[in-house]
Design a protein that fits this description.
The structure holds two protein chains of two kinds.
Chain A: E1 6-14, H1 21-24, H2 44-47, E2 79-82, H3 94-102, E3 106-109, H4 114-121, E4 126-129, H5 132-144, E5 149-153, E6 158-160, E7 166-168, H6 173-181, H7 185-190, H8 193-206
Parallel strand pairs in A: 1-2, 2-3, 3-4
Antiparallel strand pairs in A: 1-5, 5-6, 6-7
Chain B: H1 6-12, E1 15-18, E2 23-27, E3 30-33, H2 39-48, E4 58-60, H3 78-94, E5 97-98, H4 109-116, E6 124-127, E7 141-144, H5 147-156, E8 158-162, E9 165-172, H6 181-192, E10 200-205, H7 207-210, H8 214-222, E11 231-233, H9 238-244, H10 253-263, E12 276-281, E13 288-290, E14 298-300, H11 314-327, E15 342-345, H12 353-363, E16 374-377, H13 382-390, H14 393-400, E17 403-404, E18 425-428, E19 443-446, H15 449-458
Parallel strand pairs in B: 3-4, 3-6, 4-5, 6-7, 9-10, 9-12, 10-11, 15-16, 15-18, 16-17, 18-19
Antiparallel strand pairs in B: 1-2, 2-8, 13-14
The chains are: A alpha/beta, B alpha/beta.
The structure holds iron/sulfur cluster (SF4).
Chain lengths: 211, 467
């Protein structure tokens, strides 16, 4: 997994609540057996005016110029700003792969759906939940200046605005550790293989029908 | 020991080790696998040179991509075919049991688990699919995971988890005639919203839940995720145990007796404390119809589509307007004037025998309305299809003008050929009405099987209670 330490980037405003994983990556792209290549189809239904299918050359499609991620400089943004309940819907990790493949490393919203939130950390994408009022202020700042940037410092757990205001955010210790060091948590779990075997031995007595 | 909720009991019994910050390494007893969220996980194992920890806990089935007609011709779409073949190959390579496309036991992953007795009370059960909450109907700690976690479970038989908070939803009293489990859960989502259960394990309790069949309980737990909760639960009772008994994967003989006495403990203690608790009077619930692009956008069938202009919250109001525009509806129009183009009876929410029976009862001796272009029935598994045919349900549907298909996810998410065309409106028994869910530009209204059946006959939504 790619490490995440500190990042400065352009913020793309996506002013919608309940952005679901079907919207982030429509199902026809879930047929892929790879982890990469989803970026050009992130938010496919909103980014293009015609229907997309896997294998179609996206450069031949009609682009929806009104959609924020099709506009410069937001096509270069690495921070996504959205409203509450971001990432609701299906468990598809493809949604996270689509966002990171597009270039996002941070999503800021008042709240996230649980599975999406989990999946993000496993792929080097940092989801930051902030008070709805703070998110609202960020929307105003972003609307007020084209190409508005934020700096996100994971170690310090703070966001630094262009006028040097600092916004603190919460992150789980273990997840922060994995993200800062780019660690794969399967390897970490396998360090406890003996504990897992001990548990299994015990449960073979308690619930033998499960073994 | 202090009083515990059902969720606490299930969680605590599976903790392998606990970190200081409250992160638990949780042991997983059953892992259901399907073709869409597993290829990258198996690939990850191969790249790291890892083997599955325990292959006997995994059970795989292709469902999302499979065709529901002309199955003998195989899968036409080459990309979908590759994905299903990849599942077949991975299961062979890693030694995992799979009910392949031509197996009578094949079906939607959340239907076949319970049907086979692979879902048992007291287990932890995961699947790379958000509707895994379905299995909570058995007093099973079941939740959906992402692909990285699928790989983690394959490699270690464990997952890193923090304990969720506890919520109890009590449905008390007697349901009205024509009102089903689907209406209960849609009403709950309408009340608490799609994020109302985020961070919670949601236990459904109360006299109306106790009276439901296992099918009904599964329908409710299935949509816990639509209320934001990864986990839905119903306590174990005689209905649960009766359902499990004799199924292929269920224990037998003295192990059965031992299991049953353990399962009887799987209820929340009487004085257990929930972080949040709500109670709904069952008698107040009417047949529900969603009108928007989120399951919380739901009203009773005798109601009207709401008016964004009267919503004071600006964000909400503009969300409502966006939804109305997408759905092609106008504010304040009566729900029963919304006419439909297609009908879909199926999905892991409502494709079990009881669902098909409820729909067939409404349809019997009637015909699908002329304005309905297509009406599909897609049973949840090959065995359900077979049983329904033994009961003659297929004949009722076909005589009315429905198509009787092979099992799979089908038009629930339209990864196969079954889909809505742009602008088409569908009465659907599935669980998500997101934009484009059933096909780009398609418009989904979530309803119960009986309501979908009535809409098929009338050509528009009608109150099944006086149909
Ligand atoms: S039927 Fe629909 S919701 Fe259920 S597993 Fe299949 S795609 Fe997902």
């Amino acid at each position: 997994m790619e490490k995440f330490t500190r990042l400065t980037g352009i913020v793309a405003p996506l002013d919608r609540p309940n952005v679901d994983t079907d919207a982030i990556i429509p199902k026809q792209y879930l047929k892929s057996i790879k982890r990469s290549g989803f970026g050009p189809n992130a938010f496919d239904d909103w980014r293009y005016l015609d229907a997309g299918e896997p294998g179609i050359d996206n450069s031949t499609r009609r682009v929806n110029k009104d959609f924020i991620l099709n506009q410069s400089p937001y096509d270069q943004s690495s921070i996504l700003l959205a409203r509450e309940n971001f990432g609701c819907g299906s468990s598809r990790e493809h949604a996270v792969w689509a966002l990171t493949d597009f270039g996002f490393r941070v999503v800021i919203a008042p709240s996230f759906a649980d599975i999406f939130f989990n999946n993000s950390f496993k792929n080097g994408l940092l989801p930051i939940a902030l008070d709805a009022a703070v998110v609202d202020d960020l929307f105003k700042a972003v609307d007020g200046k084209k190409g508005y940037q934020l700096t996100v410092d994971l170690d310090q757990q703070k966001i630094i605005t262009e006028d040097n205001n600092e916004i603190a955010f919460e992150v789980d210790e273990f997840r922060k550790y994995c993200l800062l060091n780019g660690l794969d948590d399967i390897g970490l779990t396998l360090q406890h293989a003996d504990d897992i075997r001990t548990y299994e031995q015990r449960m073979k007595q308690v619930t033998p029908w499960l073994f | 020991m202090s009083a515990q909720t059902l969720y606490d009991k299930l969680f605590d019994a599976h903790v392998v080790r606990m970190e200081d910050d409250g992160t638990a390494l949780l042991y997983i007893d059953r892992h259901l696998v399907h073709e869409v969220t597993s290829p990258q996980a198996f690939e990850g194992l191969r790249i790291a040179g890892r083997k599955p920890w325990r292959t006997d806990t995994a059970l795989a089935v292709p469902d999302h991509n499979v065709p529901t007609s002309h199955r003998d011709q195989g899968i036409i779409d080459p990309v979908a075919r590759t994905q299903v073949e990849t599942l077949d190959a991975n299961c062979r390579e890693f030694g995992i049991t799979e009910f392949a496309m031509d197996d009578i036991r094949q079906g939607i992953v959340h239907v076949i688990g319970p049907e086979q007795g692979a879902t048992l009370p007291g287990m932890t059960l995961v699947c790379g699919d958000s509707h895994t909450a379905t299995h909570g109907a058995f007093g099973t700690l079941a939740f959906g995971i992402g692909t990285s976690e699928v790989e983690h479970v394959l490699a270690t038989q464990c997952l890193l988890q923090k304990k969720m908070k506890n919520m109890r939803v009590n449905i008390e009293g007697v349901l009205g005639a024509g009102v089903t489990a689907k209406d209960i859960v849609l009403a709950v989502i309408g009340k608490i919203g799609t994020a109302g259960g985020t961070g919670y394990a949601m236990e459904f309790a109360g006299s109306a839940i106790r009276k439901l069949s296992m099918e009904g309980r599964m329908t409710i737990c299935n949509m816990a995720i639509e209320a934001g909760a990864r986990v839905g639960l119903v306590a174990v009772d005689d209905t649960t145990i009766e359902f499990v008994k004799g199924r292929p994967y269920a224990p037998e003989g003295h192990l059965w007796d031992q299991a049953v006495s353990a399962w009887k403990q799987l209820v929340s203690d009487e004085d257990a404390v929930f972080d949040t608790e709500i109670t709904i009077d069952a008698a107040s619930i009417k047949p529900q119809v969603t009108w928007g692009t989120s399951p919380e956008m739901v009203v009773a069938v005798d109601d009207r589509v709401p008016d964004p202009a009267v919503e004071v919250d600006q964000v909400k109001s503009s969300g409502m307007q966006k939804a109305l525009d997408y759905m092609g509806l106008s504010a304040s129009m009566p729900v029963n004037e919304i006419s439909i183009d297609k009908v879909f009876i199926g999905s892991c929410t409502n494709s079990r025998l009881e669902d098909l029976q409820q729909a067939a009862e409404v349809i019997k001796g009637r015909k699908v309305a002329a304005n309905v272009k297509q009406a599909l029935v897609v049973p949840g598994s090959g065995l359900i299809k077979q049983r329904a045919e033994e009961l003659g349900l297929d004949k009722i549907f076909i005589a009315a003008g429905f198509e009787w298909r092979d099992p799979g996810c089908s038009m629930c998410l339209a990864m196969n050929a079954d889909r809505l065309e742009p602008g088409e409106r569908c009465a659907s028994t599935s669980n998500r009405n997101f934009e484009g869910r059933q096909g780009q530009g398609g418009r989904t209204h979530l309803v119960s099987p009986a309501m979908a059946a009535a809409a098929a006959i009338a050509g528009h939504f009608v109150d099944v209670r006086n149909f």
